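Troubleshooting log. The previous run stalled partway through. Resubmitting the same two chains, unchanged.
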Amino acid sequence: MENLNGYLIISAILFSIGTVGVLVRKNAIVIFMCIEMMLNAVNLTFVALSRHLGNLDGQVFVFFIMTVAAAEAAVGLALMIAFYNNKESIDVDDMNLMKW
Amino acid sequence: METLFFAFISLVAIVSAILVVGCRNPINSALALVMTFFCLATYYVMLDAPFMAAVQVMVYAGAIMVLIVFTIMLLNIRVNASKIATHKLVLGSAIGFFTLLNTIVIILKSRAALPNGPYSSTVIKQVGHTELIGREMFTNFLLPFEITSILLLVAIVGAVILAKKKI
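Second attempt completed without errors. Output:
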């Protein structure tokens, strides 16, 4: 496959945009979506390299990453709802109970 | 032709990814994220992995995004349009930019190993991608597959306990 670097660079760009989103935004749900985007960028790297090497292990890994992302979505969104019930806000600046 | 299509999909993916970060309303971010996921599914099809593309559309663009949109609608947060709710914009962008620079330098300088695995494009087209993934998953990766079920069970229990008012 000749275009491996193209896929890897797209994946790097998506990962970096996700990083910027996590660092810059304050809305917890948007941060969560950016984390999902970073996971997807890594998935793209896995699939591209697995295709390049002719080895399917990477795609099975992508499957497990998707499972972890689903579990993370369930628990994370439940956490956000619980937090919103307490504080009427989902800004990450308001989540400072454990800050010293 | 394929290069042109790749460039087009990349453009859509990057623009929608930027929209995810840039949109002020979380609903718009969620819709842009769906677009990004569809672009990634297209990449998977181009990489001879149609099963991964189907799973991507069903699990990510279907299940997870419905969950996120549902939460956004449920919380019904009032968008404060007057003030831009961000942390240190310059610092975050600089860190992201250096991450990108670093990764691209590493990608361009390094060399992946030569393709020597058994699953070439012709084999995948002959046997079928889903069958190959299934064989791999239920033979070599059987134990991780079973552990995954425990992970999902723990996640369900955790979500229920967190969402309940009184246990």
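Takeaways: The helical segments of chain A are 4-24, 28-53, 57-87. Chain A has one domain: 4-91.
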